[in-house]
Amino acid sequence: MNDYQNALRGKLRRRSWVVLVTMLCGPVTGARGQSAIDRLDLDRISARIIHVTASPDFLCTSGDDAWFIDNGNSGIEKISASADTPVLKIFVKDACGAPVSGFGALWVISCSERCLYKLQENTGQLLAKIPTGLSDVSGETSLAAGGGSVWILSDSAGVLSRINPGTNRVEARIKVSPGSAALCVGFGAIWVSDRVHNQVQRVDLKSNLLTGSIAVGKNPRFLAAGEGAVWTLDQGAGTVTRIDPGTRQVTATIDVQAPGGGGDIAAGGGRIWVVSTNPSRPLQCIDPRLNRVTRIYASQGSQGPQARTDGAVRSSSNYIWISNLYLKTVWAIPK
């Protein structure tokens, strides 16, 4: 047998072993990268764990500080990664929904008054109360700031109101679908979730025109813009939908096993972050390069595993902020 035949025989033998191992164990290279999910202790990796007496729910961020709505207790509290306790508490009657920071102020919804509070961020001073109306008095909604304006869904019949932050006046009312639920700003538009018709609507920032809608998973509510896409948390399906903002097409649907109400979604630090009411997946992150969940975080600290989970998630300059209203805790994870 010549050298060529010996080499060929050895090559075939090695290939046979690779085929056998693959049949028994799955692909040799990349198996873990394709399907494995890392599980991390939220308490161990956090830069700061803030235990509060309130029930921290919706969040917004400003620089490296964060604000949380005290669920059901008429207030919003400011927290910092450099402090173990809240640094400022502000009374807002029946504060609800996701607040937003922008244009040198903090903007907070009052569910019972159906108006918008404009607050000075450093002192909590009330700067204005703007009668806007409110589409969802249960408070499961959000504000947005961008394009030189603050935005709120102001009527359940389907009205998106645009507020001038300088004059504190509503300067445009834009017709959207009844059942519109939450907002985010990005890629030159306001994106509006519609939980009744299972779609996301796009409103152009410059023209105030509704320029189209995209079908997504069942009962979409909270959404985020970032990491190259618009993302919706589909509460009825337990999925996250990825939308290309340029083509306005769905490019991925990701199973996050998070059906049911509550939860939240945010983009930041090269990941998409999802808070859910699924106690086995209280916080998870999606790698947008892979369009799949790569990490699940849970608290295993002194208060024990999270038997009940719900809250919010937001990104700041250097941290990802996560709240759990049942554990009365907020975590700051370094990006």
Provide structural commentary.
The chain is mostly beta strands and 335 residues long. It has a single domain, classed as 7 Propeller (Methylamine Dehydrogenase, Chain H), CATH 2.130.10.10. It is 10% helix and 50% strand. It contains three helices and 29 strands. A five-stranded mixed sheet has the order 1-26-25-24-23. The termini are far apart.
Task: Set down the secondary structure blueprint.
Elements lengths: L2 H23 L5 H5 L2 E4 H4 L2 E4 L4 E7 L2 E6 L4 E6 L7 E4 L3 E8 L2 E6 L4 E5 L6 E6 L12 E3 L2 E7 L3 E6 L4 E7 L4 E7 L2 E6 L4 E6 L5 E6 L4 E7 L2 E6 L4 E6 L4 E7 L8 E5 L2 E5 L7 E5 L4 E7 L14 E3 L3 E6 L4 E6 L1
Parallel strand pairs: 1-26
Antiparallel strand pairs: 2-29, 3-4, 4-5, 5-6, 7-8, 8-9, 9-10, 11-12, 12-13, 13-14, 15-16, 16-17, 17-18, 19-20, 20-21, 21-22, 23-24, 24-25, 25-26, 27-28, 28-29
CATH architecture: 7 Propeller
In percent, how much strand structure appears in the residues? over 45%
- Helix content class: under 10%
Strand count, sense and barrel status of the largest sheet are: 5 strands, mixed
- According to CATH, the homologous superfamily is YVTN repeat-like/Quinoprotein amine dehydrogenase
Instruction: Write down the CATH class.
Output: Mainly Beta
Do you know the CATH topology?
A: Methylamine Dehydrogenase, Chain H
Tally of individual domains: 1
Low-confidence stretches: 1-33
Mean pLDDT, all residues: 90
The assigned structural class equals: mainly beta
Radius of gyration, whole Å: 23 Å
